[in-house]
Amino acid sequence: MAHEPTETGESESLAVSLRTYLSETGFSFTGLTGKAATQSITRAVVQWVGASGWRCRTEAQMRYIDPPRLKNGGCIAYWEPSWSAYLDLRVIRKDGPPIAVEIDRADESTAVDKLRDEALRGRPALWIRWHGALRTELPAGVARLHLPTRSSKAPLRYSLAPVTGTEAITLGPAVTPEARADALRRDQQRIADEKRAAARPQEPGPTRCYW
């Protein structure tokens, strides 16, 4: 069953709700590796989900609206983006469409593309971006909560002061009706193309050469 498209306002209200929860619980960490910091933030988000009366799935499979394209990288042929994509969290609610959540410390990542497509499908999209300067422009329908961590050198470790409730929330523009309609058309076209492809004999996939 298709959900009604959701305005950026709901993504923003969810970002504000999460920020408030992290502030009220005094969320912070000290001296963690990048992997451990991501895990700590993920646990805190899962706790917020539970406190809100919802449930979530980690590494939830999703599909890009536009199909991957085969590219040539020298002696390697590869698909971009990959055929399989996964959200860090998909939050399941009884009273609304699922929420797409990505937790990332890098601007140049697939998080933005995944959240963009989920927002175009009418689902709230929340990017929890920690560490570093913010450069990426946000797609329509996406809200970003920035957690400003500090880092040390040799060995590289990350720390986050207790959340105060003033951490920056940035919004992309609202999704226009025209963009929604176009995304729905492209999404349905990809599904139809994949069904036709599945009915045909399988073709060789990307190849790798060895010297």
Q: How many separate domains make up the residues?
A: 1
Please give the largest β-sheet. 6 strands, mixed
| Strand arrangement, major sheet | 2-5-6-7-8-11
DSSP summary, beta strand count: 11
Spatial gap, N to C terminus:
50 Å
Content of β-strand: 25-35%
Strand/helix succession: HEHEEEEEHEEEEEH
Query: What is the percent of helical residues?
Result: 25-40%
**Overall shape:** globular
* Class inferred from helices and paired strands: alpha+beta
Question: Would you tell me the overall average pLDDT?
Answer: 87
Tell me what you see in this structure.
The chain is of the alpha+beta class and 211 residues long. It has one domain. 32% of the residues lie in helices and 27% in strands. The chain is built from four helices and eleven strands. It has helices at residues 8-24, 34-51, 111-120, 177-199, and strands spanning 29-32, 55-62, 69-73, 76-80, 85-92, 99-104, 125-130, 142-147, 150-152, 157-160, 169-171. Strands 2-5-6-7-8-11 form a six-stranded mixed β-sheet, sandwiched between helices. A three-stranded antiparallel β-sheet has the order 1-10-9, with helices on one face. Strands 3-4 form a two-stranded antiparallel sheet. A hairpin with a 2-residue loop joins β3 (69-73) and β4. Mean pLDDT is 87; it is low at 1-6.
